[in-house]
Amino acid sequence: MEKTRNFCIIAHIDHGKSTLADRMLEVTNTIDKRKMKNQILDQMDLERERGITIKLQPATMKWRDFSLNLIDTPGHVDFSYEVSRSLAAVEGAILLVDATQGIEAQTLANLYLAMEQNLKIIPVINKIDLPAANVEKVSTEIVNLLGCEEKEIILTSAKTGEGIEDVLDAVVEKVPAPKKENEDLRALIFDSTYDEFRGVVIYVRLFGGQIKKGDKIKFVATEEITEVLDVGILKPDWHSTDGLNDGEIGYLVTGVKHLEKAQVGDTIVQVKSDTPALPGYKEIKPMVYAGIFPKEGSDYQRLRDGILKLKLSDSSLVYEPASSHALGFGFRCGFLGLLHLEIFQERLNREFNLELVVTTPTVAYKIYLQNKKVIDLTTPNEMPDPSNIDYAEEPYMKIEIVTPKEHIGGLMSYVSDNYGISKNTEYIDEDRVILHYDIPLSTILVDFYDNIKSISSGYASLNYDFLDYRKCDLVKMDILVAEHPVEALTTLVYRDQAHKIGKKIVQKLKEVLPKQQFVVKLQAAVGGKIIAGERISALRKDVTAKLYGGDVTRKRKLLEKQKKGKKKMAKGAKVDIPQEAYLAVLKR
Ligand code: GDP
Ligand code: MG
Q1: Which of 19, 77, 96 to mutate to test the pocket of ligand 1 (most atoms within 8 A of CB)?
Q2: Are 54 and 154 within one domain?
Q3: CA 13 / ligand 2 centre spacing (Å)
Q4: Quick one: which ligand is closest to 98's CA?
Q5: Same domain, yes or no, for 48 and 115?
């Protein structure tokens, strides 16, 4: 145990966590040089293409005569549950700050999470190779924030490899060894994944005892008893070992058949043990809900399988079966944010080859009914009749925007236009500030972050956290295409914004829907009343093309006949709405 060190790397997105991990794996000869590639711990195709880390990823390395267990974490706020689970499995955290950017919103958020866990923090300034690096300024920011001494800060370039050995040495010297807390086996499940060949693979941190192949074990929460079929460490591929000891991090393959039996946050103990469960994780609350339906009804079973498997490696996902008249059988899913939803949808599409209809995402409203009942409303179509509603409440978030001070004015007016309530402003140093606001979640859901970025020329960063529920004046808005309500496009909006939003949606639909043989009416309606409308003109097939000469009457007759036909078509028509249209409407 005294030769083991467990730590994770935390930072704002893009400050170089995954690249720093690459260099560590190289310097410690954990990965064969020939197999090395950039951001190797980003193992999903999607992560590599987008250049973002979505999942936590552990790796075990040898340094001097120590065994170091590193966990790389995502930086985007939608995946902060991955960060908090990683933090519970380690004793120290490398706080990485980009020398050209300084402290940003997620730097602070992740640092506070690490401090709550009493982790040893090792401050590191990365990207010192860049001409725009301002080590002195960023050092001051870190000293102000942590109250550490400037000489404790390690300078690195994860690109050139400079300073990497210093970081590894600091981990050995400063991160405490795991403490002995329990004689018998006690292992925290901090992650799991699904492998086609091995089934459920569980990632554990031992807080007591040992575990070997062939051991009989028990999951405390589900009381499931099973056998350890394989055990080992992550380098980052699975490498079988004789077993895992107290304080170590590794993986287990067990005989668990049902995916639900191995829950992230649960504790594994010996079968006959009465060792109590570790604290685990607090239940995570989804922020955003959307209905996910297969485009083809016959794909329902495959969708179900896909969601179950993704849930295994995405413990923040929440889902329940749903059905709708128009969309058939599917699922109501809860996400931590829109990026989470987008990634999930893309994974179902790629990894399971599913074509989906995703309904307009919504936050969870609380509806207080006249009869004193309260309902959680996550499906716009289930909005009760207005005459039964006493009042509605919506979730509010606490947000922090970190920005250079020249953008304060622009950001403040944008945030208050979006119903933000200013709390206070803090200075990080003389030219960077943190703006604190309370704001409705529904107004930051869609393009808030993009707008913050563009207003600040890319310099501002954002973090958010659930705050409380507050009253709001809500109405259900239906969108009709060719006079048919499109269930997936129904949304809940503020009453005084319905007109404005309705107009934007129909305009957007007009841009993205393909023309039909007939005129297509696009309408937004609240309580049966049309509040905005557009129309898409018909594709004009030239029925007179075959006529030579100037037989005007015949030409007119033909055109009239065509007009009649179109009217007929438009009445009974259903317009096929492509998936891109749903997305386009969302990003209004
Ligand atoms: P993460 O989001 O914190 O994991 O960041 P990544 O490791 O994915 O790196 C983000 C970007 O910064 C990538 O394009 C890296 O190549 C680049 N990068 C990371 N570290 C350095 C560094 O020390 N110097 C330079 N010049 N670029 C770096
Ligand atoms: Mg990364």
Answers
A1: 19
A2: yes
A3: 7
A4: 1
A5: yes
In a domain, 180, yes or no: no
- Beta strand pairing call for 210-212 and 238-240: unpaired
pLDDT tens sequence for the chain (588 residues): 899 999 999 999 999 999 999 999 999 999 887 888 888 888 888 898 888 899 999 999 999 999 999 999 998 888 988 998 999 999 999 999 999 999 999 999 999 999 999 999 999 999 999 999 999 999 999 999 999 999 999 999 999 999 999 999 999 999 999 999 889 999 999 998 888 888 889 999 999 999 999 999 999 998 999 999 999 999 999 999 999 999 999 999 998 877 778 888 999 999 988 888 898 887 788 989 999 999 888 999 999 999 988 988 888 899 999 998 888 999 999 999 888 999 999 999 999 999 998 988 899 999 999 999 999 999 999 999 999 999 999 999 999 999 999 999 999 999 999 999 999 999 988 889 999 999 999 999 888 988 999 999 888 999 998 999 999 999 999 999 988 888 889 999 999 999 999 999 999 889 888 888 888 899 999 998 999 999 988 887 665 555 555 566 766 776 676 666 655 554 445 677 777 777 667 665
Task: Determine the number of helices (DSSP H) and then strands (DSSP E) in the chain.
Answer: 14, 31
- The tokens for 19 are 């690249």
Distance (Å, rounded) from C-alpha 364 to C-alpha 289?
A: 7
User: Ligand 2 mean position to 41 CA, how many Å?
Assistant: 8
Answer with the one of 270, 299, 326 that is the final residue of a domain: 270
Same domain, 349 and 373: no
Strands 529-536 and 484-485: unpaired
**CATH number, domain containing residue 194:** 2.40.30.10
Does residue 153 share a domain with residue 77?
Answer: yes
- Note the pTM of the prediction, 2 decimals: 0.84
Instruction: Select from 9, 10, 14, 20 the residue to mutate for testing ligand 1; criterion: most ligand atoms less than 8 Å from CB.
Output: 14
Ligand 1 lining (C-beta closer than 6 Å): 11, 13-19, 39, 51, 53, 75, 126-127, 129-130, 157-159
- Residue 424 and residue 516 share a domain: no
The residue from 331, 359, 387 where one domain ends is: 359
What is the tally of structural domains in the chain? 5
Q: Any idea what the CATH number is for the domain that residue 553 is in? A: 3.30.70.2570
Q: Could you list the residue range(s) of the whole structural domain that residue 266 is in? A: 187-270
Query: Based on the domain organization, do 378 and 445 belong to the same domain?
Result: yes
First to last CA, the chain: 55
What secondary structure does DSSP assign to 288-337, as a single string?
A: EEEEEEESSGGGHHHHHHHHHHHHHH-TT-EEEEEEETTTEEEEEEEESS
Same domain, 350 and 485: no
